[in-house]
Amino acid sequence: NAGVTQTPKFRVLKTGQSMTLLCAQDMNHEYMYWYRQDPGMGLRLIHYSVGEGTTAKGEVPDGYNVSRLKKQNFLLGLESAAPSQTSVYFCASSTSGVFNYGYTFGSGTRLTVV
Amino acid sequence: DAKTTQPPSMDCAEGRAANLPCNHSTISGNEYVYWYRQIHSQGPQYIIHGLKNNETNEMASLIITEDRKSSTLILPHATLRDTAVYYCIVRSALNYGGSQGNLIFGKGTKLSVKP
User: Fold this and answer.
1) In Å, how far from its chain's centre is CA B101?
2) Measured between CB atoms, does B105 come within 8 Å of chain A?
3) Positive or negative, the Cα torsion across A100, A6, A56, B26?
4) Which CA distances in Å does A54 have to A51, A71, B85?
5) What is the pLDDT of residues A83-96, one digit of tens each?
6) Which residues pair with B110 in a beta bridge?
7) Cα–chain-centroid distance for residue B97?
8) Which residue in the set B45, B95, B104 is minimally distant from A100, CB to CB?
9) 8 Å CB contact of B102 and A104
10) What is the C-alpha separation between B43 and A34, in angstroms, rounded?
């Protein structure tokens, strides 16, 4: 039972390059989320999805795009990376409906943009 | 979501109870109090949540005041492995897909358990 798996775990990008972070969950959860965490800060929500084929903006969506083509996968894309996007990215998933008890988080992707 | 206020840091002796406070004076009637923790460099981990009654599970106890404006997370016998940042979050439990169900993290309390 893997839970939430993020790939890659580490990545270094040059300014202007693009990349996609993959999040996969095997718990049949409806909802999925992407957060970023900067040093000394709490997590900030980038985008989220409440089901296959649907996405919505969170607190800090600029510079990122997402897709949820399959229920188990949630992709986070950076079209033109900037140093300000250096951060640790966490994916999470949860059940839907009333009384959503808790999120399951992945172990994170550490991204450095130089 | 209601904002929460937590002390930035706390120390606790190993084996003693750790009591982590949280203020949420603007909490509304349908909002729950959730606690998560983040051990260094790992993803956050769900601990416990509650509405108005005190709750207990294998990890911790949650005490919510009668007016629901504050709460305390209790780790009854803290160990060195409990050293982490603890987040108190208030959110609606009615997660129908709108933003009101999203978890919004603050900076949390950094708990250091010392031998």
Assistant:
1) 17
2) yes
3) positive
4) 6, 10, 32
5) 999 999 999 998 86
6) B9, B85
7) 23
8) B95
9) no
10) 12
